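Exercise 7. Given the encoded structure of a 113-residue chain, write a plausible sequence.
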């Protein structure tokens, strides 16, 4: 009950500002369908021809019965932790390739920051 009566992304009914529109939409879709800010956002998105409730392909992302390998679509975020994991994976692959190529290639390698 505490969660259901709490504000969204630091916003409460007493505050006039709106922030984190993605959180507003998530609140609307997942909790109550009564978030007026999100309802307006989704009206605008739907008016532009987008399916705001998702479709069969989009739902694969949230369906635990759908294996990632068999999904027609899978969202991979490119920010924050996922970006760092991807960078680390690429860095490890480069190091492995350089080791396999021999010691002369390691000295000419550039480092990624």
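Solution.
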């Amino acid at each position: 009950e505490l969660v259901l009566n709490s504000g969204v992304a630091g916003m409460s009914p007493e505050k006039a500002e709106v922030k984190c529109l993605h959180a507003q939409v998530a609140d609307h879709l997942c909790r109550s369908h009564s978030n007026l800010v999100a309802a307006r956002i989704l009206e605008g998105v739907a008016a532009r021809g987008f399916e705001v409730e998702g479709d069969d392909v989009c739902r694969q992302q949230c369906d635990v019965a759908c294996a990632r390998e068999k999904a027609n679509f899978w969202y991979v975020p490119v920010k924050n932790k996922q970006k760092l994991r991807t960078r680390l994976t690429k860095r490890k692959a480069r190091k492995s390739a350089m080791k396999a190529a021999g010691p002369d290639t390691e000295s000419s390698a550039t480092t990624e920051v």
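Remark. Helices lie at 21-32, 36-47, 56-59, 80-101, 103-106. Students should compare their own answers with the one above.
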